[in-house]
Amino acid sequence: MAYDAWFRDAETGAGRWELDEIIYRSPSGGLLEVAHDMERLKARAPAAWMQLWDARYKRTQWPYGSGVWGKKELVLPNIPDEHVVSLDEGGTNLFWAERFGRELGLTDLWVKQCGVSHTGSFKDLGMTVLVSQVNHLIKSKKRDILGVACASTGDTSASLAAYCAAAGIPAVVLLPRGKISTAQLIQPIANNALTLALDTDFDGCMRLVQELTEDKKLYLANSMNSLRVEGQKTVGIEIVQQFDWEVPDWIFIPGGNLGNVSALYKGLEEIKELGIINRIPKIVCCQAEAANPLYLAYKSGWKEFHPVTAKPTQASAIRIGNPVSRSKAVRALMTHDGRVEQASEQELADAAARADRTGLFNCPHTGVALACLMKFVARGEIKRNDRIVVISTAHGLKFTESKAAYHGAGVLPGVQPSYPNPPIELAADVRAVYDAVMRHMERTFV
């Protein structure tokens, strides 16, 4: 059966623009969303969808083994399989954080390891869809596109550069100079993207990339392009699938530009409409206190939303004061009684370090979500046996500078580490080594 999808106004649901058009906003200036022919999709029974998606999951049939493209009918049904650009995204580990959960008094805590992906972040989920669509436009000669451009705090640029390199499409990335980790900076450089480090913050880069892509010679790859959302929404579907199609009670997700939280809701809403699930979990969007416009709007009772000037934070990927996808996120959170919480630099650093001691290796953004979870636990808002998923958005190896600083190689502003574990320098003497081992064992097993 042939399925269809198109752009429409995200606010009103009005209008129809084909996905082959280069358009990012409706004539009224609002964001777009990808709409699907849900009536046609509902012609297949819920059990049949689950069986189909399970049969494809992590198999080798191109491109359906991807966690994203295994659900192609609900993602991007309009393009031929041979135009898909996939790096086997999705299908990431849903880690049972049993030991850390036990420390918090929880029995059913899970961490969705989205950073265990090709470029080390959840951005791959959305970028595969966007670059596949661009590849389709180029290969089918429907549009004359020179390349793809994005503004980034690090992970988006890495993902865009890798997917464009795989497709042979030029990539241009705009980064705030000195505000991303070395590991994130080297990724687009290594993948041969034109990497422009600008004397501004992310919001300044975002303004510039929108101007740069106005003439449509360069395709805009930021999350205001709703094609990205179609890939990102699969994380919620995949979580449910990994629980044998059971819905968790809570999902905690870091929020910066806010495309991720609106995407999470969209995927869950669509499989609920298809009858695959019967409820939406409670979702908490977690912000760094240094960049918290959504949290401030939430605390006002959603009466007003004001951009902020984002301050320095270890969670550099969500250092965004004027999020592009705020209208989608606010609407979704209000519709489903979602929650918003924030974490200070001390809280996020300690939460990441404490969880690391139980076998995780968290990026600072995951630290934000873990710290917010700990606040909910401390307030008694989560029951001991609730099933909780924390979405980890990037791999900790991208943020070794902040981890090294926490554990003694430097200083993190505003942070006094509660769980430091610096290396101990010793003479090559067996007695000195033995004594150090014994001291460590005494501290560990007290």
Structure description:
- Helices cover 39% and strands 14% of the residues.
- It is globular and about 70 Å long.
- It contains 16 helices and 13 strands.
- Strand 10, helix 10 (259-273) and strand 11 form a beta-alpha-beta unit.
- The chain has a domain at 94-120 and 232-409: 3-Layer(aba) Sandwich (Rossmann fold).
- With 446 residues, the protein is of the alpha/beta class.
- The longest helix is centred in the N-terminal third of the chain and has 17 residues, at 123-139.
- The protein has a six-stranded mixed beta sheet, sandwiched between helices. Strands 8-7-6-9 form a four-stranded parallel beta sheet, with helices on both faces.
